[in-house]
Write a structure and sequence with these properties.
Largest sheet: 6 strands, mixed
Number of helices: 8
Low-confidence stretches: none
Helix content: 10-25%
Strand content: 25-35%
Number of domains: 2
Structural class: alpha+beta
Oligomer: single chain
Bound molecules: adenosine-5'-diphosphate, magnesium ion
Order of helices and strands: EEEHEEEHHHEHEHEEHHEEEEEEEEEE
CATH superfamily of the largest domain: P-loop containing nucleotide triphosphate hydrolases
Strand order of the largest sheet: 6-7-8-3-9-10
Shape: globular
CATH topology of the largest domain: Rossmann fold
CATH architecture of the largest domain: 3-Layer(aba) Sandwich
Radius of gyration: 25 Å
Number of strands: 20
């Protein structure tokens, strides 16, 4: 966790990477602290892997510098960095047993045979693969292979472990399970992790801090709650989770902002004073922050509409409500009661939508 006054374990200082005329990473500056589980999150092609490869030393920055543990990494080859990288494809040796794969990286280290055996045993224990030590990769499930790759990367006891889309090949249940396993390994070992993913849920679950990337640039860095509840831009708001966004203009500033939002058919109140009268802004509201009801609620922000679409997911329902202006609003509602009356509203029902002024996000970019 970053704490005040602590020197960063990794300092990325104005790093740019060009491939010919194409800039894959643009002037990225970023500090990562010891023991963090840090996620680089962004769509395909935004430069995540390139940034990770520069940390590992497989690519050199075109400009800027990278420090690890206080040392300038310029010109330091991968094998001399206190870093290990686990690749997108786990690249296990098919002819070697689980044990052989985990110990492989240690053959080139200056460790005794006894220490190697001990470490392999410890690592297998850590990822709960001891009973499968003698198996070959093809005799393992995807999740087990992933854990072998993780154990192999951990066996070298790096100070920094880089994971590139580590769970990409796993199905949803296994992903969730493995996410928690990685988190618990991280807690037990104290190793600093940098994880690259395009999956926002994965970043939210795993990481204590997330850097959201777009076209080689970092758009926002923060805790999962920061980037979700306090996105700094339309891009980040839209990239993380789903959200309703409406254009408007500030008409009054005092006890919150009054914003005229034509698509919502009137004025909306937002708890903020970060804009001036006349500013063009975007009001963003997450679907789960909107309350749907049949009766008109006593709320500052209340809008009527008709249910056009309804998805029932068991634990919750997603409604798409059309307003008189033609705008569609997404609402997510937890199904707290059971039985035939579980749904708050049905197709074509006339409903009211309401949200608290503090639930709305004011965005200017
Ligand atoms: N060695 C390379 N030569 C040329 N272009 C590259 C090279 N490596 C990556 N790129 C380009 O840089 C961009 C970022 O790639 P990458 O870092 O792999 O993105 P991500 O991991 O976020 O999907 C992509 O457009 C990719 O095509
Ligand atoms: Mg990649």
């Amino acid at each position: 966790m970053p704490s005040e006054g602590q020197a960063p374990f990794i300092r990325i200082e104005g790093v740019t990477k060009d491939f010919g005329k194409f800039t894959a990473v643009k002037n990225v500056s970023l500090d990562i602290f010891k023991g963090e589980m840090f996620a680089l999150l962004g769509g395909s092609g935004c430069g995540k892997t390139t940034l990770l490869r520069m940390l590992a030393g497989f690519e050199a920055p075109t400009s800027g510098r990278i420090f690890i543990d206080g040392q300038d990494m310029t010109g330091v080859p991968p094998y001399e960095r206190p870093v290990n990288m686990m690749f997108q494809s786990y690249a296990l040796f098919p002819h070697m047993s689980v044990e052989g794969n985990v110990g492989y990286g240690l053959k080139h280290e200056k460790v005794t045979a006894k220490e190697r055996t001990d470490r392999v045993r410890q690592m297998l224990d850590l990822v709960q693969l001891t009973p499968l030590a003698g198996r070959k990769p093809h005799q393992l499930s995807g999740g087990q292979r992933q854990r072998v790759a993780l154990a192999r990367a951990l066996a070298k006891q790096p100070k920094l472990l880089l994971l590139d889309e580590p769970l990409g090949a796993l199905d949803k249940k296994l992903r969730e399970h493995t996410q928690f396993e990685i988190m618990s390994i991280q807690e037990r070992t104290g190793i600093t992790f940098v994880v690259v993913t395009h999956d926002q849920e994965e970043a939210m679950t795993l990481a204590n801090r997330i850097a959201v990337m777009d076209h080689g640039e970092i758009r926002q860095i923060g805790a999962p709650t920061d980037v979700y509840e306090f996105p700094n831009s339309r891009f980040v708001a839209g990239f993380i989770g789903s959200i309703n966004m409406f254009e408007g203009e500030v008409t009054k500033n005092g006890a919150g902002l009054t914003i005229s939002v034509p698509t919502l058919g009137g004025d909306i109140t937002v708890s903020s004073d970060a804009a001036a009268v006349g500013d063009k802004v975007t009001v963003a509201v997450r679907p789960e922050k909107i309350v749907i009801s049949r009766d008109r609620p006593e709320a500052v922000n209340a809008i009527s509409g008709v249910v056009r679409d309804l998805g029932y997911f068991g634990k919750d329902s997603l409604y798409r409500v059309s307003l008189a202006t033609g705008a569609l609003v997404s609402v997510n509602s937890v199904n707290i009661s059971r039985g035939g009356t579980a749904k708050t509203a049905d197709w074509e029902d006339k409903v009211w939508l309401s949200f608290d002024p503090s639930a709305a996000i004011l965005l200017k970019d």
